[in-house]
Amino acid sequence: MHQDARDSTKYVFDLDQDGLGLPDRDYYLQNDARLKRVRSQYGQHIEKMLRLVKDPNAAGNARDIVALERALAKVQWTKVQNRDPVKTYNKIEFAGLARLAPDYDWNAYLADAGSVARPTP
């Protein structure tokens, strides 16, 4: 939680894009030789971890995980976009979260995070 960037009399919390095991979206989307090698090694690492937990379909599941992360990377903002203070200021009231993601239990999320939802006046 921190002060609102446009109203220092209020506190807000941030939600951010996530879900990638590699450092950022470019690792999934750029096709230079080094990043291709990194992606290959990452897939092998995931497969190894799945084998350690006795996953009978470790290779296939590892491919699926990397494919899911690549799909997430395609829709995530770049590092440059994430540094844009205008683009990244998307204030939404708590009730608006339920409209954006109606199947997610936002009250439980806030409780687990040690916060509580309070309606704004």
Summarize the structure.
This protein is mainly alpha-helical and 121 residues long.
Describe the structure.
The chain is mainly α and 121 residues long. Helix content is 50%, strand content 7%. The chain contains 6 helices and 2 strands, in the order E-E-H-H-H-H-H-H. Strands 1-2 form a two-stranded antiparallel ribbon. Helix 2 (33-52) packs across helix 3 (58-75). The protein starts with a strand and ends in a 9-residue tail after the last helix.
Shape: extended
| Oligomeric form | single chain
Distance between the termini: 19 Å
Poorly predicted parts: none
What percent strand?
5-15%
Q: What attributes does this structure have?
A:
two-stranded antiparallel sheet, 6 helices, extended, mainly alpha, single chain, 2 strands
Explain the layout of strands and helices.
Blueprint: E1 2-4, E2 7-12, H1 26-29, H2 33-52, H3 58-75, H4 79-82, H5 94-100, H6 106-112
Antiparallel strand pairs: 1-2
Helix pairs in contact: 2-3
